[in-house]
Amino acid sequence: MNSSDRIAVQRYAAAYDGLSTTDEQAVRRAEDLRAAARALDAVRTYMTSPRVKTQQKKQTVRAALQQAPDTASFIELLIDAKRYALLDAVTRRVGELLDNRLGIVRAEVVSARALSAAQQKETQEALSSRYGGRVEAVFTVDPALLGGLKIRCRGELIDGSLQGRLAKLQEELTH
Amino acid sequence: MAIRPEEITNIIKEKIEHFDTSADVNEVGTVIQVGDGIARVHGLNHVKASELVDFGNGVKGMALNLEYDNVGCVLMGPDHLVHEGDTVKRTGEVISIPVGADMIGRVVDPLGNALDGKGAIKTDKVMPLDIVAPGIIDRQPVKQPLQTGIKAIDAMVPIGKGQRELIIGDRQTGKTAIAVDAIINQKNIPASERCICIYVAIGQKQSTVAQVVKTLTDFGAMGYTIVVSATASDPASLLYIAPYAGCAIGEYFMWQGKDVLIVYDDLSKHAQAYRQMSLLLRRPPGREAYPGDVFYLHSRLLERACKLSNENGGGSITALPIIETQANDVSAYIPTNVISITDGQIYLESSLFLSGIKPAINVGLSVSRVGGSAQRKTMRKVAGTLRIDLSQYQELAGFAQFGSELDKESQRQIARGKRMTELLKQNQYAPLKVGEEVLVLYAGVHGYLDGVEVSDVLEYEKQLLAFVRAKRPEVLDTLNAANELTKDVEEKIVSTLDEFKTVFKPAKQEN
After folding, report:
1. Distance (Å) from the C-alpha of residue B26 to the closest C-alpha of chain A?
2. C-beta of residue B261 within 8 angstroms of C-beta of residue B183
3. Which 3 state secondary structure label does DSSP give B102?
4. Which of B52, B299, B124, B301 is nearest to B198 (CA)?
5. Scanning every residue of chain A, which has its alpha carbon at the shortest distance from the alpha carbon of B22?
6. A25-75 pLDDT, tens per residue?
7. Which of A7, A36, B174, B227 has its CA 20 to 30 A from that of B394?
């Protein structure tokens, strides 16, 4: 994606998010957009084919999204502006804006073995106190870490894994 | 040397004991685009301009473009090791190079890694590559001469320690040869006054760099020389930082009160590497597609050449940047920039080179704006009128081509000019000591050559030097040491030249 597309994504997402005045509306609209993007992804070939007329694509979207007229208009706008390809990126960005609105902090936590419920809760609490707000963590397992945790949150990487420490030790011993 | 395993074990144990086991917290970003030695990174929200970032896999980069939603970085290593989606870490450091006295005699890359296969280099300090040049209070005027051992330069475009003298000319006109001769000549100078030399090769062929290193080694010049090499096959980012790396190494020695001579060979390729990076980072192109800050690129580098004040130890960095012109066009963008930055230029011309005048220095266009005050008084007295005499000769010679009758005085000037032009020719790798230069030029300026055939002038010089070295070495010693051309010294020269006149044998003419 080039730089002008990235800027466009920000603007479209901000506009879509700006439609909602209350948190409930924002949650619903974000959910609508996510569902629409997922559904349209199934007919990707049709939606991106140059042989299908713009009018036809718009009709399809309108028909499929009768329950959510705002979302339908938004996607029609993207089609008109020849920016349908940015739909996925816009959806992601709308999700981020919603998180900001609700004060949710997303975190990715990787551990060598699956964490117990108590450990997960402890990790989330520790992250909440560090970053403030409600932390929604996604827990994954990667045995290559050997031990410890690797947490990615708000553009920071907290590397407390054995793998990371060994790499650091190797760096120190060889230089 | 016996290696005791337990000693090594202890060192490792100690390192492990002091190893910081706390978790690393780094600000990170994600690679969104990579290619052509450039990576665009999303995230890294607090990264600073010119900060070093770590791409993993041993590849480092420098953050150059801080944009609205991404950071443009140049990679300091191969870009095929970096992939879309890779994590990029901030380091919080600016790019720097390890330096130390052990670097002397070595060939290194712009990051300080040895390239000559002689093992790791022990260094004792880390210097940032890009610093602000010393200010006015830290400096003093250029006042000591830097002998290049080339007659034409030491006589007519003298270089002082702390000066920046541009060597400019087309390809194959002997630009590198002059710089290499100046380095080799440092061997002729007593160790206390000798410069530490740094040769920075930017964007040259590996074979050319190898040739220069071999020449320096053969002439015993590697004992006080460091070669910094970023060749044509290295990424543009390394070419870009190479002169700054050379300068940082030089500054280490300068702040110890030593004199340093740096050759940047050549800054045209440096500008091209920077242009490549800038265009790939989508910075707007300007004249000749160079970015707008290409002047600053060179001015901030050359401004770091200076003579420090005595309170700061009195060290110096003398810079000899080299610029390659296309078809003798000095009014192109980069040549005019660098000419205006430096304190003078040595202009080499291919037509002179092809007519057999080597070094092919164009006397009329070559100047030294500050070196004159640093020239030795002996040399200044001998060479004082040389430049004017030669330009008058060239004017007259052009006039005489019309075949008109010339008066006696003009004929004398032409005869003298021809011999002086011949006398200023010099072979490569044969730099002269300052005393020898003074003696030879004295002979020319004071008419001792007027009776010698033009074709015999170089033979005269050769025999004269051999004669003095064998029979009157004390004259050379006096001249090497003398700072002023006193009556006493002048008498010695005259008596030597008169004595030599009787033994000089012109070369046998063939047929």
Report:
1. 5
2. yes
3. helix
4. B301
5. A160
6. 999 999 999 999 999 998 888 988 888 899 999 999 999 888 889 999 999
7. B174
Residues of B in contact with A168 (CB under 8 A): 19, 24
Q: What value does the mean pLDDT take over residues B421-441?
A: 94
pLDDT tens per residue across span A92-124 = 999 999 998 998 989 999 999 999 999 999 999
Q: Nearest Cβ partner of B23 from A1, A7, A158?
A: A158
- Chain A hits for B89, CB-CB cut-off 8 Å, are 157
Tokens representing residue B389 in the block:
């005499």
Q: Which amino acid is present at B249?
A: I
The Cα A153–Cα B212 span in angstroms is: 52
End-to-end CA distance of chain A: 38
CB contact (8 A) between residue A155 and residue B44: yes
Q: Which of B139, B283, B300, B369 is catalytic?
A: B369
CA distance B33 to A131: 29
Burial B275-284 (b: 16+ CB within 10 A, else e): bbbbbebebe
Q: Tell me the chain A residues in contact with residue B32 when contact means C-beta distances shorter than 8 Å.
A: 1
Residue B339 Cα, gap to closest chain A Cα (Å): 38
Mutate one of A1, A2, A3 to test the B interface: name it (highest B CB count within 10 A).
A3
Query: Which residues in A25-166 belong to E strands, given as ranges?
Result: 104-111, 134-141, 149-153, 156-159
Contacts of A15 (CB under 8 A, 6+ apart): none
Q: How confident is the model at residue B263 (pLDDT cuts 50, 70, 90)?
A: very high
User: Which residues are within 8 A (CB) of B428 and not within 5 positions of it... i.e. 6 or more apart?
Assistant: B174, B177, B181, B358
Buried b / exposed e along B123-145 (16+ C-beta atoms within 10 A)? beeebebbeebbeeeebbebeeb
Do residues B309 and B137 make contact, with C-beta atoms less than 8 angstroms apart? yes
| pLDDT tens per residue across span B275-308 | 999 999 999 999 999 999 999 999 999 999 999 9
Q: Is the pLDDT of residue B388 over 90?
A: no
The CA-CA-CA angle for residues B477, B368, B275, to 5°, reads 125
Q: What is the dihedral of CA A75, A79, A81, A83, to 10 degrees?
A: 90
Residue B1's pLDDT band, with cuts at 50, 70 and 90, is low
Give the 3-state DSSP-derived string for A62-77, with helices as H, strands as E and coil as C. HHHCCCCHHHHHHHHH
Q: How many CB atoms lie within 10 A of CB A33?
A: 25
B19:A172 CB<8 A:
yes
**Strand B51-54 versus strand B60-66 pairing type:** antiparallel
- Does the annotation mark B369 as catalytic? yes
Distance between CA atoms of residues B65 and B39, nearest Å:
10
In this structure, are strands B259-265 and B316-324 parallel, antiparallel, or unpaired? parallel
Q: What is the reported pTM?
A: 0.87
- B420: which 2 tokens? 């002086």
